Amino acid sequence: MQIQVVKSKIHRVKCTGADLNYIGSITIDEDLMDAANIIQGEKVQIVNNNNGARLETYAIPGPRNSGEITLNGAAARLVSPGDVLILITYGFMAIEEAKTFKPALVFPDEATNLLK
Predict the structure, then answer these.
(1) Looking at the domain covering 2-104, what would its CATH class be?
(2) What pLDDT is recorded for position 37?
(3) What value does the mean pLDDT of the chain take?
(4) Residues 70, 20: Cα–Cα separation, whole Å
(5) Pick the catalytic residue: 22, 58, 80, 90?
(6) Quick one: pLDDT at residue 24?
(7) Which residues are annotated as a binding site?
């Protein structure tokens, strides 16, 4: 049996942009993606601490060391720049593997979204 568990989390980043006129996705500073072990095109769940919205989209890399967190396309309607977000990815694995698996947890600077 396989179960779904948290693979990675970027905790409490600020939304830096919302671009309704883009085809979709979330743009994430590539340094944050690397630290959280998130790859381009991976499904990401976004939890908005400001309004309670939860949505899923896919990751695209943004410029390194930029702190960029931009929701693109329809997802832009569910966030505002400055909103505090939690970004989560999940993976499937066997129960025995899941018992010892350690997710990548990233806690960037809340003011800049940069790695500490």
Answers:
(1) mainly beta
(2) 98
(3) 97
(4) 10
(5) 58
(6) 82
(7) 57, 73-75
To the query of whether residue 58 is one of the catalytic residues in this protein, the response is yes
Place of tokens 């569910």: 78
> Which strand ranges, in their side-by-side order, compose the sheet holding 17-19?
17-19, 69-72, 25-29, 54-62, 43-48, 84-94, 2-14, 104-106
Compute CA 107 distance to the chain's CA centroid, rounded to the nearest angstrom. 12
Burial of 116 (0-12, 13-18, 19+ CB in 10 A): exposed
Parallel, antiparallel, or unpaired for β 54-62 and 43-48? antiparallel
Res. 23: pLDDT tops 90? no
Angle at 114 between CA 111 and CA 116, to 5 degrees: 95
Structural domain boundaries in the chain: 2-104
